[in-house]
User: What shape does this take?
Amino acid sequence: MGKNFSTLDDFNFKNKTVILRVDINSPYNEKTKKIETSDRLVESAKTIKELSKKEAKVVILAHQGRKGDPDFLPLKQHSRLLAKYVEKKVGYVNDIIGEKAVNKIKGLKKGQIILLDNVRFLEEEIKNKTPKEHSKSQLVQALSPLADIFVNDAFSAAHRSHASIVGFTKVLHSVAGRTMEKEIKSIKKIITKMKISKHDTFVLGGTKPDEPLNVMGHMLKKRTLEKVLVCGVIGELFLIVNGYKLERVNMNFLKKKGYLDYLPQVKKLWKKYKKRIEIPLDVAVEIKRKRKEFSVEELPKNSQIMDIGIETCVKYARIINESRNIAMKGPAGVYEKNEFDLGTRIILEVIANSKGFSLVGGGHTLSALKKFNIDKNRFSHVSLGGGALITYLSGGKMPGIETLMK
Ligand code: 3PG
Assistant: This one.
């Protein structure tokens, strides 16, 4: 990678102001209202620490959640968590491009670190625009004149062409941070070792269907992916297009999230590739606070689907065991609740034990690994990115990486 990208080794950071984009988007506990500490925080802290040690003035940009979701939050808690791992104060500024932020940046002394607020509070951030267009955004226009260099350490958001990911690269010298460098090097190495251009099996779960559906469509069409095992919200969408009547509580959730809009895409995928897509055979629901399993043919009234059932686990496990390489993004169910962590636990254990190459990733998948105490060394690679990992493996666009190319 050193050949194609500049890294932290290629620049003298002393007394320089650095705009550092990290991805510390972390699981959020709605009950305690707390952000969970995450591997993304731990790994990003390494880059921050190195920059501070090199006497840079470090201005961190990051996001948390998506607008409308309960985890769409300011970054105050993240600054405290980061400080713990950087072992130094990380000042939180509840501003991004206003006077407050500008004055804080101007007042920074070498080695000092500040974290600006959730960059997605700016509407323009998530517009899917080109680097050139984003270089004209308010964010880049306001902050780039105050900075000497841009460091992108957000591999897990590198599949987004968002303002803070691509906009600065047009106006500032730009390099990859350590997390970005490590992810790309490791994934490239595994792909080279696999010696095959085709991926065997993807397990696609979690609560964000957008990337998985796009990646599936692309790879199944090009025949670069043999089999997809769906679970989580994506599994529910495939059950609907198969005519299974999901209860109101599930439908309301999917509707509120806007996920029912994906049904035409799911229908098309199913119609074209049904032989290569496996859908849940049974699910677990919560009845009187207990886990109860039902075949998808007999879904019970008024119960929310919380996990895949054991028959599905057995079927998916058999397919994983027969695969030479497996990638997984997103948990199979609500792994945070002990009663409903079985599907995610079994699938991760089976992948960890498999003889094939294994890549797993994503914020919640990492948090599940931690919960189950599964050693990360049992996988070929554990990525901080979920959507980013599968997009990268599929050969899809990674604007955050492309804009770092020399
Ligand atoms: C992730 O959690 O995958 C990254 O932080 C990107 O978040 P997004 O899917 O909301 O863009």
Q: What stands out?
A: The two ends are 11 Å apart (CA to CA). The longest helix spans residues 178-194. Residues 23, 25, 66, 156-157, 160, 208, 362-363, 386-387 surround 3-phosphoglyceric acid (CB under 6 Å).
